[in-house]
TrEMBL record:
Pfam families found in the cross-reference section: DUF2520 (PF10728), Rossmann-like (PF10727)
Superkingdom, natural source: Bacteria
Native source organism of the sequence: Nocardia callitridis
Ranges for domain Putative oxidoreductase/dehydrogenase Rossmann-like: 2-107
Name this polypeptide is given: DUF2520 domain-containing protein
PANTHER family per the UniProt record, alphabetical: CONSERVED HYPOTHETICAL ALANINE AND LEUCINE RICH PROTEIN
Residue ranges constituting the DUF2520 domain according to the UniProt record: 125-266
SUPFAM superfamilies associated with the record: 6-phosphogluconate dehydrogenase C-terminal domain-like (SSF48179), NAD(P)-binding Rossmann-fold domains (SSF51735)
Amino acid sequence: MGSALGAALERAGHVVFGVAAISDASVRRAGNRLPDSEILPVEQVALRSELLVLAVPDTELAGLARGLAGAGVVRPGTIVMHTSGANGIGVLAPLTEIGAMPLAVHPAMTFTGHDEDVARLANSCFGVTAADEVGYAIAQSLVIEMGGEPVRVSEEHRVLYHAALAHGSNHLVTVIVDAVAALRAALAGPGLLGQQLVDDQPNGLAERLLAPLASAALDNALRRGRSALTGPVARGDAEAVAAHLAALGSVEQGSAAAYRAMALRTAQRAGTAPEVIDLLEGR
């Protein structure tokens, strides 16, 4: 995420003079995306920065903030912006106490380390938390410069904001990966012309079969909400749901358990027949 944001800021006219990168993968990404920037120790980057972006795992953010504050390398007036979704500006308190301006600016986007990361920042929303209106104005300007849409998130609601995004994106990946695995098992064997159609490589037949359906379901959900629900659970077809559970269980019990949990939530959303809920609750 850090190198993607750096590239976006550089395109907007900011000078990204230095990057602190530790792992080999981080160094490669920095070299590819920010070829004019130096790879420097974090203390040197912090000492020279007017805007310091802390793009580190959530578990390391508090320690990094304390370490930078203790080292005295962040000058008063420096804008310190972290990219954690679950944290607001409180985690930057050690730096705020020595005169830094704290910002929490989280792009609501997934980053995989591939070329599409930078392009996906454009038109993404960014969850923004600041200490005051001056901070919000600066954060808003930075986000707009990167092509994104700033969205104000209060300090006390950062965890809820992040949980919602994780639920809607990370768990979607798990559901799709489970569905692809089940489709591969269902379609294994010769095709209509005798060729082997299904393998374990990405972008195969299972993915092509699922892609338009999943894309349409996502689009319908975002545009129509609960009324987009279709299928046997929404119809109250307990017999079909029981058959699904048995079939998925024959492939992988974990997938069947996930189906049961999501089907129960679907039934609650759809207000489906009581016998379906009884089945899914094991009654």
